[in-house]
Queue: 3 jobs
Job 1
Amino acid sequence: MVIVHISAECYPMAKAGGLADVVGALPKYQNKIGEKAMVVMPMYQTAFLQQNKWDVHFKGHTNLGDWFFDFTIIKESTGKLGYDLFLVDIHGLLDRPKIYGYPDDIDRFVGFQVAVVNWLTQWEVLPDIVHCHDHQAGLIPFMMKYCFDYQKLQLVKTVLTIHNAQYQGVMDWAKSILIPRWDISKKGLLEWNNTINSLATAVKCADKITTVSPAYSQQLKFQSNGLETLFDNEQGKCVGILNGIDNELWDPATDSMIANHYNASNVIVEKKKNKKALCVKYNLDPNKPLIVFIGRLVGEKAADVLPGAIQHALDKTNCGVNFFIVGAGETATESALNYLVQLYPGNYNTFIGYEERVGHEAYASADFLLMPSRVEPCGLNQLYALRYGTIPIVRDTGGLHDTVVDMGDPDGFGIKFLNANEQDIVYSVERAIAVYQDKIQMNKMIQYAMQIDHSWESVVIAYKKIYESIL
Ligand code: GLC
């Protein structure tokens, strides 16, 4: 089966969040079971672009409204990723250092999608599945079906995977001129609340929709940033498939980004060494339980609640615990988190920014990972944490609901709470401190966590079944 993944992010080319990890791993594991899966994404100016070799694969010409442009499709030349990676180069529009955050992001991603569909129509043998990820690829199923120039793609099956429905690619109707000549009788498919909504359009037009966890698929009917009735109507097309993690990249026994390697048999001793080094580097106390937060400092992750909750927890426990924050995001939250560094020297620190290496070091050193997310479609960090023997403390929502069992359960290996507020977090931190002191229980949970299997091998079979159901 030939599967073309279309995404705004893909690790290691460009990563802003979990979307990149998934799109960078899923095709690799699909190819291992004999599929022919590939990724198409924009060519941003990233380090990976500069440090690797690329072949020119295709040159095309098309237009975005009244702007006519040339585009080039380049391909990673060694095949080392385990799948073909194609980049769409649109000079002046996509070739910038950042993935998101420009005033013309709408035009950039519509331009990207137009170029991709234009290229696909010129394939001699069409792919079996066009697999779109999130709203940045959300207009593609519509374009394939209802744009006059792309009639050749009308029967090619499309799948949409929703990694995050909070972002929807909403644009004013004036932007409709950016979509190449389309069948006006299908206007209703673009329409949502007097705007064009790329995600809603994809939900209406794709042959199948997957969400990145079963719980999230249900949750969207009640909480999806305005699309609740749509998800309620389209529930029949929706399936939740829990993400996998790349066990080759995320393996504490071989991870090249950590100093002391370990597996379940020597985790206690070796992890302690990592923790000690991290604590020396960031002025923390290795003798206290270490809780880390790793992620974007945004409202969705409830990062705004962290400064208050951490301060409260440190005061209440007389600094009986340490915290380390890794991430970047909203300025107010960054400042509030940084401010605490002077208040609690030796017990609290931050690494504002994101470096893959610091993330890996933190998983390999910490005792607990805190994820108070307000919205968490799947969440990969808790899965990485489990693999590294780090106990997750999570809010009971979306994928966190599906992947963490509270330690109150006989086979529990985590701590779950209901509300993204200070009170619930502080209470959970106290539970963490208590279990940390109970070495037998703590070790049992670490052992249990490390053997849980979230590898992609079984997940790709679930995707295969989805494809087969529509072919
Ligand atoms: C988004 C979601 C996250 C999910 C990831 C990969 O980043 O917020 O929950 O794990 O996509 O699917």
Job 2
Amino acid sequence: MSEKKIKKTVVSGIRPTGNLHLGNYFGAVRSFLKMQHDFNCYFFIADIHSLTTHPTPANLQAGVRQVLAEYLACGIDPEAATIFIQSDVPEVTELYTYLNMNAYLGELERTTSFKEKARTQPDNVNAGLLTYPVLMAADIIIHKANYVPVGKDQEQHLEMARTFANRFNRMYHHKLFPAPKPFTFDGKDMIKVPGLDGSGKMGKSSGNGIYLYEDPADIRKKVMRAVTDAGPTEMNQVKPEPVENLFTLMKIVSAPETVEYFENQYNSCQIRYGDMKKQLAEDIIAVTTPIRERILELVNDSEYLGKVARMGAEKARESAVRTLTEVRELIGLRKLY
Ligand code: ADP
Ligand code: TRP
């Protein structure tokens, strides 16, 4: 048996809806880098998923190109992992159709992300939004993935992918799909990188992102503007959410001694948020600077980006076609000629 066959399979994707930010990096991409040499990895750009927000063709194409360049700039190696664009593997939409026949309105309507979108964008509650988790399940199980490195916000979608995979197996009396499990960088809980605007997660469309391509001066400005409070007045006081978020981000990007130092300062009511923010900004810049430089180099290298996308599409299609042949056979969609 070749070495590739015994490696466990990994699938994950990011929508081309904007530049990658620290949430994408620490929630997902950092795990991609850790896994790419030890697993059979498929990392893709979820362009079909992004159609729920109706991008213009020009914006969609620019977004795909940008995320591809950013994947590579982060250090994903196209020789080690399969990097591809979702729409280059049309088999996934066929599997999505089959899975849709066994995905129920009730469970789709109860999905947190759907309820949230239905509330915040009532004028665009389209069917693609409702069946978003079904397409995501198809992405994952078409390569028979064992692990999916994603941030905490995708936990429920991943649980639904397991439900749809198990349901298919049961329905056709065949264990075709493994149950895909979450993978986290440190083997602990899935993470949520907070925004620095007081509450919630950092997101591409939330206007609170710190981007990998960003100029250090802009990063400093954003961090210095982060919401805090007047400072603790009692020893070991519970931190309000905006301050807790600052510490959460620091735990993700800074050295443990740095975090400990500022924790002690906070707990003894001596903290100077300005100093903490300065340190945090420098620790963020240390992560982003090398990536930023590579993004600027790569994004205009159309020839290289095209080559990577073509190579990835071929490898991903091969795996997808293999699975779909089995799926059609199990369902009973057999050719009469
Ligand atoms: P966004 O949420 O920024 O629009 P995507 O939805 O395409 O980006 O997310 C791509 C990946 O990045 C997913 O694995 C998601 O869990 C992860 N991710 C996005 N934001 C965060 C965050 N704030 N913290 C942790 N992971 C995140
Ligand atoms: N739904 C994911 C997000 O919004 C993106 C995504 C699409 C994905 N298909 C996937 C992630 C498959 C992991 C595996 O972030």
Job 3
Amino acid sequence: MKKISVLGSTGSIGVSTLDIAAAHPDQFQIVALTAGANLHLLAEQVRRFRPSVVAVLRKEDEVSLRDMLGAAAPEVLSGLEGLMACAVHDEAQMVVSAIVGAAGLVPTMAAIESGKDIALANKETLVTAGALVMEAVQRKGVKLYPVDSEHSAIFQSLEGHRKADVRRLILTASGGPFRDKALAELKQVSPADALAHPNWSMGKKISIDSATMMNKGLEVIEARWLFDLPADRIDVHIHPQSIVHSMVEYVDGSVIAQLGIPDMKTPIAYALSYPERLPLNLPALDLCALGSLSFSKPDNQRFACLELAYEALRAEGTAPAVLNAANEVAVEAFLNRELGFLAIPDILRRVLDAHRHGALTHIDEALRADRWGRQAARRLIDAAL
Ligand code: NAD
Ligand code: MG
């Protein structure tokens, strides 16, 4: 029985994680849950999974949740303190890091420092402070399993092979809802258009990131840290069908890929149960019905965010943290209709150019860079309003 703490349990990844746990009650026990919003769903999850502790973001929600649960209430906490308590909870052997944004960094780091294995969905943790996170993983001897489908695919394609034989990683990208739109058309797109992802059903932030292709940029940075390869050995192919989840090319020209239908339950389950595979009751991949799979190069003109991420990765130090923070603010502003779609890469370009990159030797530096990036982006957005 693996005891699990789920950070971000009401989100898209959190809900899928709990679905898997519910289908395999002999294998997983949920000991802690946290959520930032959606109290009703959280209350339902608490009744169903009976964790020892649950944490909400806001103090007022702590009281409401206790009221909702009545006698069934476990320990209920709030704020950063509550989140941290769930991240380091004594009973937990594994922490599923499924909060969205750089807010996931501090609790994920705390979980690593307290010796927990991590199932990592929160890519922003590695984007913001990848070097420090991986150093802590090594030092504590914990396991960090990727949940992101591309990284799970690479993780699987590396198994049984020698790292020294890897030539490059190829991340696949669906291209999002605007894959075939002309640059001029992109100017007009609305948040609703951008949220309508063709293949994956996900939280709002990552859906917008998929539309700008910043998601793939963040994933390139995530891959750099997870697999310890430089930016110039990580490529991106557009693959509209989202069937080949990513690939590893070896020095002899062999390319090993992982394929499957686009459903996050597969990579989540693999992270939870590695090295075993869980039966998941998903529809089988029917390649014959699909007929063909296609691949092409990403268009850097229409999707400037991808190149910005490569640039930040090459600059190293605090640059990726600043880019990520500015992106979170810009995405929020786009969702609030304060910003047009094409203004997102514009803002990021300007924030990245204005930043004086520093070294990243302590988590405080990552948090400072994160704050700086947020403020810089906010100022630019306010000035344009
Ligand atoms: P989501 O928005 O659906 O859920 C996020 C969860 O975190 C919710 O429970 C929310 O209440 C909580 N939360 C949000 N902000 C918080 C804060 N500041 N403090 C504490 N809790 C907070 O997001 P998601 O789509 O499930 O994505 C979660 C993470 O997984 C992201 O980093 C995303 O990039 C990554 N990811 C998601 C998918 C996917 O299919 N959804 C795929 C790959 C990677
Ligand atoms: Mg992904």
